[in-house]
Amino acid sequence: MSYALQREGVGYSPPRVSTVLPTVAEYFAGIGLFRMGLEDAGWKVVYANDWNPEREQIYRGFFGHGYEVEDVFNVDPEHVPPVTLATCSFPCIDLSLAGNQGGLNGKHSSAFWGFYNILKNQGTGKPPMLLLENVVGWLSTNQGADFLAVAKALNKIGYACDAFTLDARCFVPQSRPRVFLLGISEVNLPDSRCKSADIFFPRSERLLPAKLKRLLLCNDDIRWLRLDIPEPPPYKSCGFSGEVVEDLPLDDPRWWSNEKVEKHLGMMSPSHLSIIKKLVPGHDKISRTFYRRCRENGQRAEVRSDDVAGCLRTAIGGSGKQFMVTAKNGKVRMRTLTAREYARLQGVPDAYRIAANTERQSLNAFGDAVCVPVVSWIARNILTPLAEELKLCCR
Q1: CB neighbours of residue 9 within 10 Å
Q2: What is the pLDDT of residues 230-283, one digit of tens each?
Q3: Angle at 324 between CA 318 and CA 330, to 5 degrees
Q4: How far apart, in whole angstroms, are the C-alpha atoms of residue 12 and residue 132?
Q5: Residue 281 CA: distances (Å) to CA of 268, 277, 288, 307, 330
Q6: Separation between Cα atoms, residue 150 and residue 112, nearest integer Å
Q7: Which of 98, 105, 182, 360 could make an S-S bridge to 319, C-beta 3.0–4.6 Å?
């Protein structure tokens, strides 16, 4: 991890710059990883909100103060200061492929409409820039209608939109693709920035997968933007074993018993078991992640074949914990990933104090968060250049 946040100490100080910082209101703030990524890139969060006091506890433990703990539907728009950018990482449970597919009007993901109401009620005082984030399932629920409904709603209150996908695997050894929807107030846009839906998007499939491209090109009633987005770094193919795994003592109680290890080896299909067998004879300690999944023939343990973790998830979202198998010199060990390993997979420096009451609280919090260097990359390569071009940086 080479970005500025990887430093000694337990406190946090955003980078010092000589110019006025563009400001941010952070909705669905969680444990502050959107903030961490933005402030690492020179932005300043001046307001944050979420409904979960457990997440706020972890946020406060690192940043030194908390945020407004309130249901987004009850937030008073007059209490939100004017900002350059509002971020919205709204709940994914009803959109996730691992969740219930309830859609944008489901019990959880419908919280987007609370955010939307705040923007609508802010009138001319609403932020000129928006950045929304969610899982790739957002492109699929209700045959894409949920994604388009958000873009149309933002159009209705004066924002033109652009969208792209970005995988955390460009920065950390975790496969975590996400959809980002950018909204820019048309009051601030020159005519050259507003394009019709039939434009050609010269972007790679990593930024514009076929499903997203189809949604953008087949809806000429939506006002889209065309932004110049550079190609992100190549995907990482390794790093989990060396950069993420904590070196726990052999007598640490978090290692599973031999009986539990054998049980999970028995839950593996021949193809997954062969991955473990290839690792066992080696002298180097090598680790792989795995999930427990329900299949037609019962619960199975499925191991990744590469040195990259699967996508971190939460039990709340319909999935569960991620586990690790380590092999060396004929010995196989297994355990649940630790909270610190979850944090590292999200690009969080070890200086981030995890102020949670339980390990489960930590795992759920990090599994539900954004990846820090992903946000930093977006800020440096998209948000800051656009804010400078539109002369929004001093807001």
Answers
A1: 8
A2: 999 999 999 999 999 999 999 999 999 999 999 999 999 999 999 999 988 877
A3: 150
A4: 25
A5: 19, 8, 15, 17, 5
A6: 8
A7: 98
